[in-house]
């Protein structure tokens, strides 16, 4: 049978393929107008089963282009995921989304196991395995339907294959981080990577897929604990049991985060070796935070009546000059001479933590999806992750308050948030042996640096909630207002002493 060629995806077939791609959940540039599709390469993954991987370049009207990976299959019958009908070697055939075909996943795993190489017209697809690979029997296949940016399938409840749709040139932090932690550290709370596939051509290195062990029976911490704490809060007579369990969770999260950072800080390869933190790093974070807040000020006024307290307090702080002064005050108290940057998770929250066999396991080291691959691999202060998990705990507690309307809990919310932060930090420090070589050893200075990263996180969250979930704006408002007010009053006190 004739192999699929780039010219077969031209004309009307190409237009249908472009339309199919733009309507998928994993298509990331939904705000742009996709105008053209160009096939960079078609790689015959399994010629007998007519399964291919197309590397396509999608052009946007006046906004550049992006590369995507599209597994395709050709069949004489029309099935779910049919993209278009095509003429192939004089026969009417159907072009389909091969990700939905179990034979595609099987071919990828077999390619990894044999470390196969597949030549294309403009490059080569290469497979690599790790020492952790355990071959499945290919008895069961499932697809994960909840994903946004990738497409994953599960084989025999033992291997998960993550297919990257939006392709960026460079090393993949998701694989890089889990491989380093699994092979070069004592940290065992990540799924072990089993293999991966890349495409090399035209000066690019594109990661197409990676496979990990599948933690069968696991549940993400956000799902588990929202259900757990809502159930507790609905039958709450006093806060002691609820508070005790929240603080126990905070302690465990601090422990696992500190252990991960300790392992990452001890690595000596160029990509992982700790580097000095610069004042410019903190200035950049604060500038980004202030930009978010200036946008928020313009959008918040309609919500001033409903969320009068915190919105009014934030608006009183408002103004570019005030924010600039606060930013300068926050950074002036930080001495960076002994502080370090390390590799971090970068997009760390309860949804990225799995509960499996009575312990936490951390997943999805891709970093923030909106950033380039190069930016995601940059070293940062460990405070990036610590702030992320503290903010995630805030969301958990606030979600329970909003979901149950429990007045006792609502009245104690700010106190509980403060105590949760304290116990996360204390547990983190105990687990991160030698943390004072990377972060401030003095507790006051430690918290001042942490505030900078919580400010960054909560200012972004506020902008997101205004645009997407206005009823949730108070969740990021509380830490944002508290940090800004403390920083402003502290600046005034310091000015008065001068």
Overall CATH class of the largest domain: Alpha Beta
Q: Tell me the domain tally.
A: 2
As a whole number of angstroms, the C-alpha radius of gyration is: 25 Å
* Reported CATH architecture of the largest domain: Alpha-Beta Complex
Output the number of helix runs: 14
Give helix % range.
Answer: 40-55%
Gap between N and C termini: 84 Å
Described by strand count, sense and barrel closure, the largest sheet is:
7 strands, antiparallel
Structural class: alpha+beta
Low-confidence blocks of residues: none
Q: Largest beta sheet: what is the strand line-up?
A: 6-7-12-13-10-9-8
The counted number of beta strands is 18
Mean pLDDT: 92
Would you give the CATH topology of the largest domain? Aminoglycoside 3'-phosphotransferase, Chain: A, domain 2
The CATH homologous superfamily of the largest domain corresponds to Aminoglycoside phosphotransferase (APH), C-terminal lobe
Structure characterization notes:
The protein is α+β, with helices and mostly antiparallel strands. It has two domains: 6-213, no CATH class; 219-497, Aminoglycoside phosphotransferase (APH), C-terminal lobe (Aminoglycoside 3'-phosphotransferase, Chain: A, domain 2), CATH 3.90.1200.10. It is 44% helix and 21% strand. The strands form four sheets. The protein has a seven-stranded antiparallel sheet with strand order 6-7-12-13-10-9-8, sandwiched between helices. Strands 1, 2, 3, 4, 5 and 11 form a six-stranded antiparallel sheet that branches. Strands 14-17-18 form a three-stranded antiparallel sheet. A hairpin with a 2-residue loop joins strand 12 (193-201) and strand 13 (204-213). The chain is globular, with a radius of gyration of 25 Å.
């Amino acid at each position: 049978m004739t192999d699929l060629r780039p010219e077969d995806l031209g004309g009307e077939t190409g237009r249908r393929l472009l339309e199919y791609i733009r309507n998928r959940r994993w298509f990331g540039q939904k705000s742009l107008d996709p105008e053209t599709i160009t096939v960079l390469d078609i790689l015959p993954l399994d010629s007998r089963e007519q399964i291919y991987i197309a590397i396509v370049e999608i052009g946007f009207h006046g906004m550049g282009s992006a590369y995507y990976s599209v597994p395709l299959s050709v069949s004489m019958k029309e099935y779910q995921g049919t993209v278009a009908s095509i003429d192939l070697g004089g026969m009417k055939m159907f072009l389909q989304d091969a990700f939905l075909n179990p034979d595609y996943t099987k071919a990828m795993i077999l390619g990894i196991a044999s470390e196969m190489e597949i030549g294309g017209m403009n490059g080569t697809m290469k497979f690599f395995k790790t020492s952790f690979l355990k071959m499945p029997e290919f008895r069961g296949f499932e697809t994960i339907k909840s994903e946004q940016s990738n497409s994953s399938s599960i084989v025999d409840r033992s291997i998960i294959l993550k297919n990257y749709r939006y392709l960026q040139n460079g090393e993949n932090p998701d694989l890089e981080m889990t491989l380093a932690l699994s092979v070069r550290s004592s940290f065992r709370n990540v799924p072990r990577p089993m293999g991966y596939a890349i495409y090399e051509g035209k000066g690019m290195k594109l990661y197409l897929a990676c496979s990990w062990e599948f933690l069968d029976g696991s549940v993400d911490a956000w799902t588990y604990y929202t259900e757990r704490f809502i159930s507790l809060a609905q039958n709450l007579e006093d806060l002691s049991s609820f508070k005790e369990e929240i603080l126990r969770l905070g302690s465990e999260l601090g422990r696992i985060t500190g252990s991960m950072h300790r392992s990452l800080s001890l690595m000596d390869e160029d990509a992982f070796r700790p580097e000095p933190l610069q004042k410019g790093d903190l200035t950049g974070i604060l500038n980004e935070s202030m930009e978010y807040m200036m946008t928020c000020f313009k959008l918040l006024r309609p919500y001033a009546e409903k969320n009068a307290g915190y919105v009014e307090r934030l608006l009183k702080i408002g103004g570019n000059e005030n924010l600039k002064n606060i930013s300068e005050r926050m950074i002036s108290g930080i001495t960076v001479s002994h502080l370090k940057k390390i590799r971090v998770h970068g997009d760390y929250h309860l949804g990225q933590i799995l509960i499996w066999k009575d312990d936490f396991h951390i997943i999805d080291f891709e970093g923030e999806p909106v950033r380039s691959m190069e930016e995601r691999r940059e070293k940062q202060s460990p405070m990036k992750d610590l702030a992320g998990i503290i903010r995630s705990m805030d969301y958990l507690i606030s979600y329970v308050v909003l979901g149950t309307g429990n007045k006792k809990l609502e009245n104690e919310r700010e106190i509980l948030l403060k105590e949760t932060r304290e116990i996360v930090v204390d547990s983190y420090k105990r687990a991160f042996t030698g943390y004072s070589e990377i972060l401030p050893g003095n507790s006051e200075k430690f918290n001042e640096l942490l505030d900078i990263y919580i400010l960054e996180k909560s200012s972004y969250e506020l902008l997101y909630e205004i645009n997407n979930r206005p009823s949730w704006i108070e969740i990021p408002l509380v830490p944002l207002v508290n940090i800004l007010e403390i920083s402003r009053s502290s600046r005034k006190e310091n000015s008065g002493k001068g």
